[in-house]
Specification:
- The protein is globular.
- By secondary structure, it is mainly alpha-helical.
- The two termini are 36 Å apart.
């Protein structure tokens, strides 16, 4: 038990931001009692440790009375920290709940007139902020007062009116939760499967928006529901390849949220999520100037908690990595690798985000021509079997890119074995599409055998032409979202650096027509 308490306390203290730590110390010092002073001493000692060391704590405080029952002080310190956090992050829900408690107290004291006035004010505030559950509780109190023969301010003393109002609030609440359910379902499917690679997968996404609620925005009865409406359509169109439609929907979502600064302050994570998805679609439709502006907006969101700091770090650096990749600024992109490595050590980053960092950094090193470093970062994905489940799409393409790196590193003797292993894996996971089949067949027949430079160049041209043709298929072409195979082939054909080929395409097309890489960040968050 003591070990569990110690670990929980240590993780809790490590999760606090500097401002939260300062607030805790002020909060704890208000009472100035021996117990609170002991908590501050213990807090400071634990806060200074990089790894929790119980023996060092006991040695430091061996002369203090509280050390004899250290587990009691730990428990109290945990409770005190949580209370300070609750006070520090005083949200809109807190005053509404407090007001309802005051309504109850006034009612119990028989101060019905005062009770009714506070109830009316609370209900109006809750309705204005779409806190429907609080509104329902207010209506219950109004009914309670009416049934006692009391006139409620603004009610008209009409129970039928209240019943109708209650039904309308329940309808709005049900509507909001229906949209939320669709949002959660499509997001879960997208996180597991990412973009549709064939008609069957596209039809599966279609099932999510067959709900009549998704036909038009007018069916959404609250701002929360309207936001979810745009979110659902943004993800659906992204997953099925309708990028410009997805851009329109996600742009509308961001504008809708930005119309209510108070809602952003109340729920910054929702705004962060909308910006993250908006960035990704801007990136896919080659609106790079907008991408940079969105990254600035993301980093400008106030990080009121350690969790928000984590989210802002993950989302902004995932996006910055992808921007360097898609604009072929590989060397410049390597400048953020150290910052990302520090963040990986500092934060507890979820596996589905870690794999995106690893894949993106590997891609940067590949583009910069540093193949050993590229292989090193790719091995972080391939050596962790958990990524097979958290991001099967990235894991699958990592196995294919591994084959290309073996060729670049002149380790062609190993190619035949790894091609067979990759083929078995993709076939077993039902991820062996035409694009992958053509590449694996080429590597097995051409790259793993001794052929002349002239023969290989001809073979590279043939493969480039086949992949160019198949990439016109709206489903098969999505393989280029993970790695620009065609530009790599052209670099081999022309005997020029990969980065040079990609950069020329970008300049020639004026930041248009380049596929996104790597495929990549979980756009929907």
């Amino acid at each position: 038990m003591s070990k569990t308490i110690s670990e929980d306390l240590f993780r809790l203290i490590r999760s606090l931001t500097p401002s939260e730590k300062r607030y805790f110390k002020r909060f704890a010092s208000i009472h100035s009692s021996v117990r609170e002073n002991n908590c501050i001493k213990l807090f400071n000692a634990v806060d200074m440790q990089e790894v929790y060391n119980e023996a060092a704590i006991r040695k430091k405080f061996h002369m203090e009375k509280f050390c004899k029952q250290l587990h009691v002080t730990k428990n109290y310190l945990c409770s005190l920290i949580l209370r300070s956090l609750e006070s520090c992050h005083y949200s809109l829900n807190a005053p509404l709940k407090s007001a309802l408690r005051q309504v109850e107290l006034l009612y119990e004291k028989g101060l019905y007139k005062e009770c009714a006035k506070l109830l009316h004010k609370t209900k109006r505030s809750a309705a204005g902020h779409e806190k429907f559950l609080v509104v329902l509780e207010c209506i219950e109190w109004e009914k309670e007062l009416m049934q006692g023969g009391l006139v409620i301010h603004g009610s008209g003393n009409d129970l039928r009116k209240l019943t109708g109002e209650e039904k309308e609030i329940i309808r709005k609440l049900g509507n909001e939760r229906s949209y939320r359910n669709i949002r959660q379902l499509i997001l879960r499917h997208y996180r597991i499967n990412n973009v549709a690679r064939n008609k069957a997968e596209a039809m599966h996404y279609r099932k999510f928006i067959k709900n009549p609620l998704c036909l038009k925005e007018g069916y959404a009865l609250s701002q929360n529901a309207r936001e979810d409406f745009y979110y659902i359509h943004g993800v659906y169109n992204l997953a099925t390849g309708n990028l410009h439609e997805s851009y329109e929907k996600q742009q509308q979502l961001v504008r809708l949220i930005e119309q209510s600064p108070a809602r952003i302050e109340e729920n910054p994570r929702k705004y962060l999520s909308a910006l993250a998805n908006y960035y990704y679609i801007c990136y896919l439709v080659n609106r790079y100037r907008e991408c940079r502006k969105v990254i600035e907006k993301i980093r400008g969101i106030p990080a009121g908690s350690a969790k928000m700091q984590l989210f802002i770090f993950i989302i902004s650096y995932e996006r910055e990595l992808s921007l360097y990749i898609n604009t072929a600024e590989y060397r410049k992109g390597l400048s953020v690798v150290k910052t990302i490595e520090d963040g990986i050590r500092h934060y507890r980053i979820p596996s589905h985000n870690l794999v995106i960092f690893y894949f993106g950094i590997s891609y940067l090193y590949f583009g910069a021509g540093e193949y050993r470093n590229s292989a090193l970062w790719l091995s972080k994905i391939l050596n962790d079997l958990s990524y097979k489940e958290s991001r099967p799409d990235i894991y699958s393409f990592s196995k294919i890119i591994q084959l290309i790196l073996l060729y670049e590193l002149n380790q062609t003797d190993a190619l035949e074995y790894f091609v067979k292993s990759t083929y078995r894996y993709l076939a077993g996971k039902k991820r062996l599409y035409k694009f992958e089949l053509i590449i694996l067949d080429f590597i097995r027949k051409r790259l793993s055998r001794n052929v002349s430079t002239q023969e290989l160049t001809v073979a590279f041209r043939g493969l480039r032409d086949r992949l160019t043709a198949i990439s016109r298929d709206s489903y098969e072409g999505k393989a280029l979202n993970y790695f620009d195979f065609i530009s790599w082939l052209e670099s081999k054909i022309e005997n020029r650096p990969f980065a040079e080929i990609v950069k020329e395409k970008i300049i020639r097309r004026g930041y248009a027509g380049i596929n996104a890489s790597p495929g990549n960040e979980n756009a929907a968050v």
